[in-house]
Amino acid sequence: MTDSQQTTYTDLRSVEQYRKLLRNLHTLNASESHATLVRMLEGLLASPLGPEEQLEVLEASRQTITFVQYEMSSRYAAHPLPPDSAEDATLRQVVRLWTALSTAYARLAEGHSSSSEEFRAQLPLLAQRRIQYLGQIIIEHFRAHRAEPPGAWKAVHDAYLEADRAGATHSRVIDPLNNTWKAQSPDEAYIALLLIDLTNPYGRNQRELNWICRWAQRFAPYCILQTSWEQDDVRAYGLDPSEDHGLRPIALIGSRPGMRRFDGQRLAAQIKAMLAEFKQGTSPASLGLGDDCSQPACARLLVSLYRPWGMSAAGRRFPRRSKKGENKICTDWDGIGLLISGQPFEPPNRRQLMGSRYDISVITFGARAEESVAPPLLDAETEAIRNGYNIDTWETVDHSVSGFRLQRKHPVQRIEHHQLVGIKPSDGTHYLLGQVSWLMYEPDGTLLTGIHLLAGLPTTCAVRCTGINVSPTEPYAQAFMLPEIAAMHSPATIVLPGGWFQAERVLELHTGSARQIRLTTLVARGTNFDQAIYEYVQD
User: Fold this and answer.
1) Using CA atoms, how far apart are residues 144 and 135, in angstroms rounded to an integer?
2) Which residue of 174, 288, 357, 400 has the fewest CB atoms within a 10 Å radius of its CB?
3) Which residues are bridge partners to 292 per DSSP?
4) What is the domain extent for residue 523?
């Protein structure tokens, strides 16, 4: 047996003994503390303590459990977690502790009818805690970028419906771990989880998801779950508690008996007011968003949440179609350039950079050889692989005009959120540019990803900085140009290495000849690229 399967703490006979155990956890490392907490909780309900004392122990342990769980989950939260990875066991351990905690509160709620009148008054607290920790199981899978386990959503729905039948959903209870309100109702705990699910959690990095989880607690009181409404708005989100998932557009699932309708209109007004405060220079911390929230990243994230949280379910602009096929993907910047242009990138000022070594290499028998441009390669993929650039084959799940949902087992290349990739669709002849929208592992190890296509057929170019402090021999970097597409209202853009965009920055662009361009508007920013609208500088 593993340590966490050994004897539970059933011999502890007082609240003070449990408190002493919690205080002594500081002498242990995170893994040892975690195993101790699991054994403590799993043994608590078999202890001779009464329900009031058991609740006191649970409440005393919450802050410690939250801290230890965060320490454990940080081991896998930075990148998607494959099921066969070393930290897969860590995820299971974290889920086991959340499960034990939610179960402990649920057991106390089951026996509340035979308890004292004073303890029966704790039903809203027991419901809020149970919903919160069942929700943490789902959030932990978001954090690991793993598919939610079957039945996880159904368990949360059932806990909410039980609280609703008991008339306890709207009663606020004290919660010191709620950063903003220090209190929360079962209804608000439920809505907070639903809000997180609406934010494309599998497309968020560790920092973004941490902010979103905190903000969901902050904004949940401004949302309502309606059991009846005057007009059926198909653009609204609805919830069928009998299904094993969160909110869905009513237009997708249809109106059903027992459905709840999500109303976030008040939240929309709150977000608009906050964005207006940002423009006045107000800090995120002063608005209750957190001391670690920085501008402009905080504002960008809040803008992206405005529609799903406060407005309505946006209809898909381009319908998805099921179609099988294999797609080629490359994640290396230089490799993408080779696959698009058909030849390796060479700076236009390569001769200046090489200096005298260049002179020696091009002089043959006393005569200078003419510099020539290498012809496009007949097989760019073969040349890319020969140069050490990996090309993975991904299977299409479905696709639309704007992107693909793909799957693959054991990708060779590391693929990350918001990363620029080169993709050649199964029915295409050219490599296109795409951005990784989200990543999620299935239980069998299959990695699912959403790839959003950057509109237009890309071409390669060379760019370098300009200015009085820039050397005339400043090296060029590879970049990509995307043409204007009037039918999609998509302007011409340039895709630069990450961190290059600054509004009004002037760059030298080389596409056979040199011209200057001025960057005007940031269109998209990923982990390794900036996409910007530009204009030519008049000579």
Assistant:
1) 14
2) 357
3) none
4) 459-536
Cβ(199)–Cβ(303) below 8 Å: no
Cβ atoms 384, 338 nearer than 8 A: yes
Question: Which alpha helices (H) appear in 111-249, and where do they start and end?
Answer: 117-120, 123-144, 152-165, 186-197, 206-219
Cα 216 from Cα 218, distance rounded (Å): 5
Give pLDDT tens digits for 268-306: 999 999 999 999 999 999 999 999 998 888 998 999 999
Cα distance between residue 123 and residue 51, in whole Å? 12
pLDDT digits (tens, 9 = 90+) for 211-254: 999 999 999 999 999 988 776 666 789 999 999 999 998 888 87
Number of domains in the chain: 3
Same domain, yes or no, for 198 and 80?
A: yes
Task: Give Cα 142 to chain centroid, integer Å.
Answer: 8
- C-beta neighbour count of 505 within 10 angstroms: 17
Final residue in a domain of this structure, among 169, 202, 223: 223
- What burial letters (b/e) apply to 175-203, b meaning 16+ CB within 10 Å? beebebbeebbbbbbbbbbbbbbbbbbbb
Question: 254: which 2 tokens?
Answer: 């249809």
- Name the phi and psi angles at 181, rounded to 5: -100, -20
Instruction: Report the chain's C-alpha Rg in angstroms.
Output: 28
Scored b (16 or more CB within 10 A) or e, 287-305 reads bebbeebeeeebbebbebb
- For residue 374, give the DSSP letter: P
Cα end-to-end distance, the chain, whole Å: 77
390 and 524 share a domain?
A: no
* Separation of alpha carbons 156 and 279, rounded Å: 38
**Other CB atoms within 10 A of residue 91 CB:** 22
Mean pLDDT of the chain: 87
CA distance linking residue 475 with residue 353, whole number of Å: 8
Partners of 452 in the β-ladder: 403, 435
DSSP 8-state class, residue 307: I
188: enclosing H helix or E strand: helix 186-197
- The 3-class secondary structure across 195-207, one letter per residue, is HHHCCCHHHCCHH
Percent of the chain at pLDDT > 90 equals 64
For residues 232 and 229, give the distance between their C-alpha atoms in angstroms, rounded to a whole number.
Answer: 7
For residues 275 and 507, give the distance between their C-alpha atoms in angstroms, rounded to a whole number. 31
How many whole angstroms separate alpha carbon 405 and alpha carbon 447? 11
Beta bridge partners of 95: none
Residue 270 lies in a domain: no
The whole model's pTM is what?
0.85
The answer to whether residues 440 and 472 belong to one domain is no
How many other CB atoms are there within 10 angstroms of residue 16's CB atom?
A: 9
What's the pLDDT at 210? Answer: 95
Judgement on whether residues 425 and 528 belong to the same structural domain of the protein: no
Query: Is residue 82 one of the residues assigned to a domain?
Result: yes
Q: How far is residue 43 from each of residues 7, 60, 101, 103, measured CA to CA in Å?
A: 8, 16, 11, 12
Instruction: Count the Cβ atoms, other than its own, within 10 Å of residue 117.
Output: 6
- The residues that bridge with 524 in the sheet, in sequence order, are 531
- The enclosing domain of 403 has a CATH number of 2.40.10.220
Tell me, what's the pLDDT at 530?
97
